[in-house]
Write a structure and sequence with these properties.
It holds the Pfam family PAS_3. It is an enzyme of class 2 (transferase). Keywords: ATP-binding, Chromophore, Flavoprotein, FMN, Kinase, Nucleotide-binding, Phosphoprotein, Photoreceptor protein, Receptor, Repeat, Sensory transduction, Transferase, Virulence. InterPro entries: Arc_rbn_hlx_hlx, CopG, HATPase_C_sf, PAC, PAS, PAS-assoc_C, PAS-like_dom_sf, PAS_fold_3. Residues 64-134, 190-261, 319-389 form the PAS domain. The chain is built from 21 helices and 22 strands. By secondary structure, the chain is an alpha+beta fold. The chain folds into 4 domains: 13-178, 2-Layer Sandwich (Beta-Lactamase), CATH 3.30.450.20; 201-310, PAS domain (Beta-Lactamase), CATH 3.30.450.20; 330-432, Beta-Lactamase (2-Layer Sandwich); 439-641, Heat Shock Protein 90 (2-Layer Sandwich), CATH 3.30.565.10. Strands 2-1-5-4-3 form a 5-stranded antiparallel beta sheet, with helices on both faces. The protein has a 5-stranded antiparallel beta sheet with strand order 7-6-10-9-8. A 5-stranded antiparallel beta sheet has the order 12-11-15-14-13, sandwiched between helices. A hairpin with a 5-residue loop joins strand 1 and strand 2 (88-91). The longest helix is centred in the last third of the chain and has 38 residues, at 434-471.
Length: 643
């Protein structure tokens, strides 16, 4: 292959003058056209048999054949001469460089042998027409190089005529336009890709020129705004899709950018309203990018209908607000904890339950506020839960409040995982069940107390029945005594039942016990003493004792006549750490009292059973003026404190 280097050729001044004259006269449009005509004339005259010794060209191109030969060989453009069959008869260095072949190789080939087969048919049509008409033509086509590569050329082809005016050969001037054609192909592919992207894009893509006229409007824009591409192109963007109140601001922004090259909304995402063809408004997300294009900038806007996004965001805000309100105002405590059990987030109810502020709880672990006896069970299940072995668990346990008091809670613990199933944090929902626990404990105590009291009552009834039947002179007396004693027991039970068997008022016990005997006269029984609440066992014992004393007073003592009286007084002594009840029954005005020859059931009931039940002392004295009974017993605190 010949070297592709070229050298500059200086044309004779006479030739240059003649070329300038021909161009000035209008015979040729340019110097290159005059030069091409001179070359054709040169070859025609050289190939004429009649004048092999004459070298004449109508432009007197040169005085030296060697100079013309040098001009042909070293021309910057590729030049080739072919005969009427297309066989190369002459090629220059640049033509060899374009085809990638040596001149000796080309002179063995035809033009057809080097032309791409897809371009050859059209090339041959033009070639034959030039031979028939003598007219020049231009063609862009591909040559095949020996290495298989393709080179695009633009050929200016002119027939060389003989003396009779008929073509006897063809001259082609070739320029390598491979780079240009590749660029054109890349541009076409780029435009095709751009078109595909525009059509396939989910977002609206709208381009405008510096006058705000629309020059691009993709399928998504058609679908979103309701204007076809044909209807949108050339329209003012502001008038088409911008709400009226924002149009002037848009125009001022364009003017500002053209003057300064700056725009506050360029190259950033903003949200605003747009208008559809039907006049409806909707929210869009907009991004605008300027595109430099010579002296006239262009702008491309990317718009996305975010109506659904806004609806979803509004729904999410409503849901979040509802959840936040539920979270904050729930009657149960809600807390989020990390894998170590440390509080990450807590609601107000947990602060209420524990007595700690939110700030004090955050950073603590739930173990720190859990009762020591309950830590093991909770911590074991929590560790299993965060290890993925348990999804959720529930238990009852105690928190130790800030003030040191204990509160019972019912806990439900669950876990939140990430997308891969790895635990993120735990959720612990708890409610205060302290009152329920107290109620359960109270119920348990009541049941136990009931069992105990029923047994005691049955024992008492059994003793009453046995002693009454044993000491009564007649069945009628036994029936009367038994009935009154059981009624007294029943009324004491009534008082305790009204007080939920927690404690009974001594004053109320006295009133109930004395009620059957007030028929003897309201003023004959005097009662006085402070308010004292007695535990159930003491209340029953005192009630039975008063019933026995009153019954004996009616039968034998001060209430057996019309003038006798009973004075019942009590007091509470709190001089010591343990309060003591002092109760005194004193009769007067009745028949003279004679000490009994033997102690009856009533006396034993008071002095023995009552003393035992009260864990105190009970003593009966048979004074001549009337029976006196004194009872002294400790009263458990705090029941006796309400005086």
């Amino acid at each position: 292959m010949p070297p592709s280097s070229t050298q500059n050729i200086s044309l004779p001044s006479e030739l240059l003058r003649l070329i300038d004259e021909d161009v000035a006269s209008g015979r040729y449009r340019s110097a290159s056209e005059a030069l091409r005509a001179a070359l054709r004339s040169f070859y025609r005259e050289r190939m004429t048999p009649e004048a092999p010794h004459t070298f004449r060209v109508n432009l007197a191109m040169t005085r030296s054949e060697q100079e013309v030969e040098a001009l042909f060989a070293q021309a910057a453009a590729g030049m080739a001469q072919v005969d009427l069959t297309g066989r190369f008869v002459r090629v220059n260095n640049q033509y060899c460089a374009i085809l990638g072949r040596h001149s000796d190789e080309l002179l063995q080939l035809r033009m057809q042998d080097c032309t791409h087969r897809d371009d050859l048919p059209h090339n041959m049509v033009l070639f034959r027409r030039a031979l028939e008409t003598g007219e020049a033509f231009e063609i862009e086509k591909r040559y095949l190089r020996p290495d298989g590569s393709v080179v695009w050329v633009r050929n200016a082809v002119s027939p060389i005529l003989d003396s009779s005016g008929k073509p006897d050969s063809i001259l082609a001037v070739s320029i390598d336009i491979t780079g240009y054609r590749n660029a054109q192909q890349e541009l076409r592919e780029s435009e095709a890709l751009k078109g595909s992207i525009l059509d396939a894009a989910l977002d609206c893509i709208v381009s405008i020129n510096h006058e705000s006229n629309i020059i691009e409007w993709n399928t998504a824009a058609e679908r979103t705004f309701g204007y076809s591409r044909e209807a949108a192109l050339g329209r003012d963007l502001a008038e088409l899709i911008i709400p009226p109140e924002f149009r002037e601001r848009h125009r001022q922004g364009m003017v500002h950018y053209l003057a300064t090259g700056k725009g506050p909304v360029l190259n950033r995402r903003i949200e605003l309203e747009a208008v559809r063809a039907d006049g409806s408004r909707f929210p869009v997300e907009l991004a605008i990018s300027p595109i430099s294009s010579g002296d006239s900038p262009r702008f491309t806007a990317y718009l996305r209908d975010i109506t659904l996004n806004k609806q979803v965001e509004a729904a999410q805000r409503e849901t979040e607000q509802r959840l936040r309100s539920t979270y904050e105002h729930a009657f149960t405590s809600i807390a989020e904890v990390d894998a170590s059990g440390r509080f990450l987030r807590v609601n107000e109810q947990l602060s209420i339950i524990t007595g700690y502020s939110r700030e004090e709880l955050l950073g603590r672990t739930f173990i720190e506020i859990t009762h020591p006896d309950d830590r093991g069970a909770d911590l074991d299940q929590f560790r299993r839960q965060m290890a993925g072995e348990l999804d959720a668990y529930a238990l009852e346990k105690r928190y130790v409040r800030k003030d040191g008091s204990t509160v019972w809670i019912e806990l439900s613990a669950s876990r939140v995982d990430d997308g891969s199933g790895k635990p993120l944090y735990g959720i612990r929902v708890a409610r205060d069940i302290t009152e329920r626990k107290r109620a359960e404990e109270h119920q348990r105590l009541l049941i136990n107390e009931l069992n105990h009291r029923v047994k005691n009552t049955l024992t008492t009834v059994q003793s009453i029945v046995f002693q009454t039947l044993r000491n009564a002179p007649t069945p009628e007396d036994a029936q009367t005594a038994l009935s009154s004693r059981l009624i007294a027991l029943s009324k004491a039970h009534d008082v305790l039942t009204r007080e939920s068997w927690e404690a009974a008022s001594l004053h109320q016990i006295v009133l109930e016990a004395m009620e059957p005997f007030r028929a003897q006269g309201e003023s004959r029984i005097r009662v006085a003493g402070p308010e004292v609440r007695l535990p159930p066992s003491m209340a029953l014992a005192v009630a039975m004792a008063l019933q026995e004393l009153a019954t004996n007073a009616v039968k034998y003592g001060s209430l057996s006549n019309e003038t006798g009286k009973v004075e019942l007084r009590w007091s509470l002594d709190k001089t010591n750490s343990l309060a003591h009840l002092h109760l005194r029954w004193e009769e007067s005005g009745g028949p003279p009292v004679r000490p009994p020859s033997r102690r009856g059931f009533g006396t034993r009931l008071i002095e023995r059973s009552l003393a035992g039940d009260l864990q105190g002392e009970a003593k009966i004295e048979f004074a001549l003026t009337g029976v006196v009974c004194t009872i002294t017993a400790p009263v458990p605190d705090p029941i006796g404190a309400a005086v």
